[in-house]
Write a structure and sequence with these properties.
- The chain is α/β, with parallel strands linked by helices.
- It has one domain (about 5-130): Response regulator (Rossmann fold, 3-Layer(aba) Sandwich).
- About 40% of the residues lie in helices and about 20% in strands.
- It is built from five helices and five strands, in the order βαβαβαβαβα.
- The protein has helices spanning about 10-25, 35-45, 70-80, 95-105, 120-135, and strands at about 5-10, 30-35, 60, 90, 110-115.
- Strands 2-1-3-4-5 form a five-stranded parallel sheet, sandwiched between helices.
- Helix 1 links the parallel strand 1 (about 5-10) and strand 2 (about 30-35).
- The longest helix has 18 residues, at about 120-135.
- This is Response regulator receiver protein.
- InterPro entries: CheY-like_superfamily, Sig_transdc_resp-reg_receiver, TCS_response_regulator.
- Pfam families: Response_reg (PF00072).
Length: about 140
């Protein structure tokens, strides 16, 4: 099974590190990238340049982004019956207890802090997709 992954991330370096990590993941992934929450909504709704985007099985979501941050995006999709069952993994550099609590209250599926070290970052990405692609049962 190929895991359809929507990565919502504004940092191009993190996007590239995530893509590199996924190339060596045990779970095959097809990745769509949105640079902020507003683009993430366009992707889910298949609007504009995302008209051909597949429905994601999993969303990796950063918090701090321009236009629409990750928390606003999370609230929007969890309030929408068409998208609320899609698992959302917060994948962010924030270790703030307030951010962690706030994201879980908004129904994040999990909260993962991005490691700064490259090899650990890659291993974390691979473990997240291994869990959601091979262990968890997705809707």
């Amino acid at each position: 099974m190929t895991l359809e992954l929507l990565l919502i991330e504004d940092n191009e370096g993190d996007v590239e590190m995530t893509r590199r990590a996924l190339r060596t993941a045990a779970t095959e992934c097809r990745v769509s990238v949105a640079g902020n929450g507003a683009q993430g909504l366009e992707c889910l709704r298949r609007e504009g340049r995302f008209a051909e985007a597949p429905r994601p099985d999993l969303i990796l979501l950063d918090i701090n982004m321009p236009r629409m941050d990750g928390k606003m995006f999370l609230s929007e999709i969890k309030a929408d019956p068409a998208f609320k069952a899609i698992p959302v993994v917060m994948f962010t550099s924030s270790e703030s207890p307030t951010d962690i609590r706030d994201c879980y209250e908004r129904q994040a599926s999990s909260y993962v802090v991005k490691p700064f070290e490259g090899a650990l970052y890659a291993e974390t990405v691979r473990e997240v997709v291994r869990f959601w692609g091979q262990i968890a049962k997705l809707p």
